[in-house]
Amino acid sequence: MTLLFVRDDREYLLEPGETFESDLGILEVPEDVQPGDVVQTHLGERFTARKLRGPDLFNHLERTGAPMMPRDIGLIVGHTGASGGDRVLDAGTGTGVLSAYLGRIGADVTTFEQDPEFADVARENMALAGVGDAVDVRTGDVTDTLAELETYDLITLDTADAATVVERAPNLLADGGYVAVYSPFVEQTREVVAAAHEVGLTGVETLETIQREMDFDDRGSRPSTAGVGHTGYLTFGRRT
């Protein structure tokens, strides 16, 4: 069981029985360590063991590219009602953050990644997230296997050819199932929307995900003047 060991702004992923060395001293993790335990280095620096949660996975999974942001994942879960027992088809695994989140809420996920090395990293990340049994990482292009796939409660796509999969959505989705497509580009999003309307999906809508932090100081409170937090576009549709 991998745990997160935290001290102020320091965070380290460590296993029970592992020995870790840093400028704060040597940290020997007990074999019976549990979340909430405090472990000291040989210099007396205290680290608290913490159970991994979704945001920790986003911060610490090995990355093979830009992972989907938690705010985008939240929109997908909120708009589709993804929950335990759902069958999910995902394409464009990448780092696997979305698949890990869905696996941790109890969904049964089949995800496709074209790059073999990225797929191997994703499998390691799923093991770290504790969802190795719930998430099946397959190497290949999902469009090559569409005729062989089952039906799903949710399809999530983060690929350049997402519109091709959306065109087959009525055959891949169970009654009432959703498709959710992420894209950083408007042009790609337009293709997805057109495909969703063409095959008769209902409730088709596209949302741009923008998030701003608030600044609080002695002068007053206002949205941060840092850059607008645009990540991409999410398109949703449903089979009735």
Provide the CATH topology of the largest domain: Rossmann fold
**What series of H and E elements makes up the topology?**
EEEEEEHHEHEHEEHHEHEEEE
Overall, the morphology is: globular
CATH architecture of the largest domain: 3-Layer(aba) Sandwich
Low-confidence stretches: none
Structural class by sheet pairing and helices: alpha/beta
> What's the number of extended β-strand segments?
15
Q: What is the CATH homologous superfamily assignment of the largest domain?
A: Vaccinia Virus protein VP39
- In spatial order, strands of the major sheet run 9-8-7-10-11-15-12
* Major pleated sheet: 7 strands, mixed
Q: How would you describe what is shown here?
A:
- There is one protein chain.
- By secondary structure, this protein is of the alpha/beta class.
- It folds into 2 domains: 48 residues, Vcp-like ATPase, Chain A, domain 2 (Roll), CATH 3.10.330.20; 183 residues, Vaccinia Virus protein VP39 (Rossmann fold, 3-Layer(aba) Sandwich).
- The chain contains 7 helices and 15 strands.
- The strands form 4 sheets. The protein has a 7-stranded mixed beta sheet with strand order 9-8-7-10-11-15-12, with helices on both faces. Strands 2-1-6-5 form a 4-stranded antiparallel beta sheet, with no helix packed on it. Strands 3-4 form a two-stranded antiparallel sheet.
- A hairpin with a 2-residue loop joins strand 3 and strand 4.
- The mean pLDDT is 94.
